[in-house]
Amino acid sequence: MKHKFLIFSVVLLLFLSCGKNLQQTPRSTIEAFIENVVRLNEKSPTTIEQAKKLLRSLFSTEKAYESFTTTFRNFEIKSYSIGEPEIGDSFANVLVKMETKGLIGTKEEEKEYTFSLEKKNVKWYIKDIAGVLKKFEKEQKESEGNEEGNT
Fold first, then answer.
1. DSSP 8-class letter at 83
2. CATH code for position 68
C-alpha cells in the first residue's frame, strides 16, 4: 500500500510540474501554441475543444486570440524551429520558422513569424504574431471610420 501511494504521489508531482512549466519561458509558451495548433486538426471534437481552450489561455488579450483565429487556421504545421528569444523586462520577441501546408489543397510553404510576447504575473503570453493583431486592429478602425462616414 505504501508503494502505491508513493508511486501515485510521484506521478501526481510530475503531472503538476509539467503544467506549471507551460508558460514559464517564451519558448515553452510558443511550443504549447504550436502543439495545440496541431491538435486543432485532429478528428476528436473533445481534443479540438481542449486545444482551443488552451490556446485562448496563451494569449494576452481576447483580441489577440481573435486575430489568431481569423488568420492562422486551415493549415497544418509540418515542422518548425524556434529561434533565440530577444528578452526584455516584460516582453520578448521570438522568430519561429514553420513549414506549413494548407488543408484546402494549397502547397507547402516555409514562413517566418515573429512572436511578440509579454510577461504578466510570471507567465508569458502571446501578444501578437507577425503583426497580425496590429493589422487586425487597423482594419477594424478603418471599417468603423467608413461606417461613420456613410451615416
1. -
2. 3.10.450.540
127 inside domain: yes
pTM comes to: 0.74
Taking CA atoms, 24 is separated from 16, 27, 53, 125, in Å, by 14, 8, 18, 10
Phi, psi angle pair for 40, to nearest 5°: -65, -20
What does the buried/exposed string (b/e) look like for 69-102 if buried means 16 or more CB atoms within 10 Å of the residue's CB? Answer: eeebeebebeebebeebeeeeeebbbebebebee
Closest CA to 114 of 134, 85, 99, 94: 94
Cα 135-140-142 angle, rounded to 5 deg: 95
d(CA 141, CA 146): 9
- pLDDT tens, position by position, 80-135: 999 999 999 999 999 999 998 876 666 788 989 999 999 999 999 999 998 887 77
